[in-house]
Design a protein that fits this description.
8 helices; 10 strands; zinc-finger; zinc ion binding; 2 domains; Znf_MYND; binds zinc ion; alpha+beta; 10-stranded antiparallel β-barrel
Length: 442
């Protein structure tokens, strides 16, 4: 079921910042996976889109941007702000997802399905318990509220045994042959309905219809749909069509109810996609090993060095001002940005670079995080290691212009560091991990 090849560890290299030559050699034995959004999405017909949405729900273990989070541990889903005490059968601690600066509720950005302990996982021996992390998901949230002075980002890690209260032991129906589309559609829908039925019967289906955070308020008419706040109830009722759906939920058997719910959730998600600024547009992230042509990169670098020498010679010949050139060389040239551009040009639509225990590809030479500044795991005290970064390319997919957030949400890079032990703080709760934001400095 592992969708990500587990990565090799590389010892940190010493950097020589005075040297403007880009060193690509550290990539020779790296094993980065890149994540991108498949733009074929735009060509899907109605039924294919429905399957696409079904397969981005929890029991398909997606990596995705936007929509509602596809939670892993349903017994401790993070709470909406001000949701109060939640039905808490297991006495699990639920986190409240609130911006530290403006106190707004954080919005779900993306999640990566990232189990550990694959054959080439050099960190497997460090894991506290591999069996406990058969399923493992990293979630990223941010404050997107307008006018927030210092917007918060939040990373959560959740992990589960293969045998657990929420998901079937077997892998979900997926990746059928093309001519078996109808079969895949039916099987997937059934798989999702079984999943929701189980959650419903165990009282774990108490998430807001709009944002997906857990909450205690229910629609008083149907006694089935949850909402976290008046604001989200209004969105649900007016924009997401609960007004029409509500009446359908009364006097139904569990199976009928769940089957209605699966259909309705699809139309809600469809509507959400078009009309809501409460969530980002939902898109699957495809993750594949990066294929770099290092020879090509080296040749480009040689050419660049040649050009640089030539410019210097020309400046000399024309009695140009060497000082100016040196100034350009020393101050404006950003080796890190140049390297980032050259490497990401191989897969220009990449939004994720994943290499657990690898090294980040800094987008700029400014505000690089020192390894000594990465905080230790607040639960077990072990060190945190790099797991993945989110590139600025993701900003293009978030509909920021349409929702008036264009000037408020921004980054050069977001770098996620997680507990090297992937410790069991994440058992029956969502463990906070570390995220570092690098800005574009002008
Ligand atoms: Zn805020
Ligand atoms: Zn909500
Ligand atoms: Zn209702
Ligand atoms: Zn830990």
């Amino acid at each position: 079921m592992s969708k990500i090849q587990v990565k090799n560890f590389h010892a940190p290299e010493t950097e020589n910042d005075s040297d403007s030559d880009i060193d690509f050699e550290d990539l020779a034995d790296s094993s980065v996976s890149v994540g991108y959004i498949d733009t074929n999405f735009e060509e899907l017909d109605e039924k294919e889109l429905e399957l696409y949405r079904i397969q981005m729900r929890s029991p398909f273990f997606p990596s995705k941007v936007g929509g509602k989070p596809a939670w892993l541990d349903y017994s401790s889903v993070p709470m909406a702000v001000g949701a109060g005490q939640i039905n808490d059968a297991n006495n699990n601690k639920s986190l409240e997802l609130q911006c530290q600066s403006c106190k707004s509720q954080l919005v779900f950005l993306l999640q990566i399905y990232a189990p550990i302990g694959g054959d080439d996982d050099k960190f497997a021996h460090e894991a506290e318990n591999l069996d406990d992390a058969f399923h493992r998901v990293i979630f990223v949230f941010l404050c997107s509220s307008k006018g927030c002075k210092s917007r918060s980002f939040k990373v959560l890690r959740s992990q589960l045994k293969r045998e657990n209260d929420f998901f079937s032991y077997e892998a979900p129906p997926e990746n059928y042959d093309l001519d078996e589309f109808d079969q895949e559609f039916d099987d997937s829908k059934k798989h999702l309905a079984n999943f929701y039925k189980n959650l419903h019967l165990k009282n774990f289906l108490n998430q807001c219809a709009v944002c997906g955070l857990s909450c205690s308020k229910k629609c008083s008419r149907c006694n089935f749909a949850f909402f976290c706040s008046q604001n989200h109830q209004v969105i649900d009722w007016t924009k997401l069509n609960h007004k029409t759906l509500c009446a359908k939920y009364s006097d139904k058997s569990v199976d009928e109810l769940i089957s209605e719910w699966v259909n309705d959730e699809n139309s809600v998600l469809k509507y959400n996609e078009e009309k809501s600024s409460a969530v980002f547009p939902e898109r699957e992230i495809i993750i594949e090993p990066e294929v770099l042509d290092l020879n090509k990169l080296r040749k480009e670098q040689e050419r660049y060095k040649y050009d640089k020498t030539k410019i210097a010679e020309d400046l000399d010949a024309n009695e140009g001002n060497d000082q100016d050139f040196d100034a350009i060389k020393e101050n404006d040239y950003d080796k890190d940005f140049d390297k980032f551009k050259k490497i990401s040009a191989h897969e220009p639509s990449q939004i994720i670079r994943y290499e657990r225990g690898g090294k980040p590809l800094w987008v700029s030479k400014y505000q690089k995080l020192k390894e000594s500044d990465i905080p230790k795991c607040e639960y077990c005290g072990s060190r945190r290691i790099f797991e993945f970064q989110i590139t600025p390319q993701l900003l293009c997919y978030l509909n920021l212009e349409e929702t008036g957030q264009l000037d408020t949400v921004d980054w050069a890079g977001l770098y996620v560091y997680t507990c090297a032990k992937s410790c069991q703080a994440a058992k029956n709760s969502y463990a906070s991990e570390y995220i570092y934001k690098q800005d574009f400095v002008s």
